[in-house]
């Protein structure tokens, strides 16, 4: 299993102080910053677009911080070049949002980003099997996408187990409701990239929370 990566979701941070919030998470030991892009169409919520990511990137140089862009958008092809220019490192589109998966992955790679594919709770893991050789990451959603602060859906874990047993070296991300109460279940299933919004930003000590999430994933790797 690849190494643990902890990716705080800045959706749970203070949007009026994004620079400070991102830097705070980096100081607290985060590996990646998870940036939730919602278009009010693919999901019933609106967040930010490439102009805001460009501004954050201006404050956090490329190479020093990794932007994991979770694209909850219809027509994901449309934003690839904008997010590459904005400084995105990984462009994770939703399987459900397109029919041209391979072409989209090629486009993301041609733009210089890693390519991820996310599946919603009701989408079976098998849809991505043939895409995995081209993908850098699969994201198994553990809530219905659209909002932070929802309850972790344990019934998505068989999909993580299925993916991990078929693809031992794949980065498998889980997103939604991850905290110290749920991390062991996700880590045992085989997830190694952990998104946590509420679980980190609202923790008494975010640094401790990030370290504890990482320790839980690493403990599973030793089993
Ligand atoms: O993509 C999403 C929600 O759609 C997530 O990234 C959430 O923002 C994670 O927040 P918590 O569930 O950890 O509070
Ligand atoms: Fe997300």
Helix and strand pattern = EHEHEHEHEEHEHEHH
Number of strands: 8
Strand content: 15-25%
Ligands in the structure?
5-O-phosphono-D-xylulose, fe (ii) ion
Q: Which structural category do the helix and sheet elements fall into?
A: alpha/beta
**What's the helix count?**
8
Q: Percent range for helical residues? A: 25-40%
The chain-level mean pLDDT equals 97
Unreliably modeled segments: none
**How much is the radius of gyration in Å?**
16 Å
Q: Order of strands across the biggest sheet?
A: 1-8-7-6-5-4-3-2
Q: Please give the CATH class.
A: Alpha Beta
CATH topology: the name is TIM Barrel
Number of domains: 1
Shape: globular
What would you say the CATH architecture is?
Answer: Alpha-Beta Barrel
Relevant terms:
binds fe (ii) ion; globular; 8-stranded parallel β-sheet; TIM Barrel; 223 residues; 18% strand; binds 5-O-phosphono-D-xylulose; alpha/beta; 34% helix; 8 helices
Task: Write structural notes for this entry.
This protein has 223 residues and is of the alpha/beta class. 34% of the residues lie in helices and 18% in strands. The protein has one domain (5-222): Alpha-Beta Barrel (TIM Barrel). The protein contains eight helices and eight strands, in the order E-H-E-H-E-H-E-H-E-E-H-E-H-E-H-H. The termini are close together. The mean pLDDT is 97. The structure holds 5-O-phosphono-D-xylulose and fe (ii) ion (FE2). Fe (ii) ion binds at residues 9, 34, 36, 70, 175, 195. It comes from Lipomyces kononenkoae (Yeast). This is Ribulose-phosphate 3-epimerase-like protein.
């Amino acid at each position: 299993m690849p190494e643990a990566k902890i990716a705080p979701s800045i959706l749970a941070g203070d949007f009026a102080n994004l620079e400070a919030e991102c830097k705070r998470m980096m100081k607290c030991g985060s590996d990646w910053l998870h940036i939730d892009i919602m278009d009010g169409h693919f999901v019933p919520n609106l967040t930010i677009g490439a102009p805001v990511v460009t501004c954050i990137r201006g404050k956090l140089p490329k190479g020093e911080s990794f932007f994991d862009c979770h694209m909850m958008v219809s027509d994901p092809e449309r934003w690839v070049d904008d997010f590459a220019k904005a400084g995105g490192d990984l462009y994770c589109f939703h399987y459900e949002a397109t029919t041209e998966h391979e072409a989209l992955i090629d486009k993301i790679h041609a733009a210089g980003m890693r390519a991820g594919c996310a599946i919603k709770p009701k989408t079976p893991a098998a849809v991505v099997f043939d895409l995995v050789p081209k993908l850098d990451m699969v994201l198994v959603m553990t809530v219905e996408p659209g909002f932070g602060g929802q309850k972790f859906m344990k019934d998505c874990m068989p999909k993580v187990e299925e993916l991990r047993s078929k693809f031992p070296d794949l980065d498998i991300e889980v997103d939604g409701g991850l905290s110290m109460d749920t991390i062991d279940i996700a880590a045992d299933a085989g997830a190694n990239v952990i998104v946590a919004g509420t679980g980190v930003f609202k923790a008494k000590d975010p640094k401790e929370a990030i370290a504890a999430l990482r320790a839980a994933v690493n403990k599973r790797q030793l089993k």
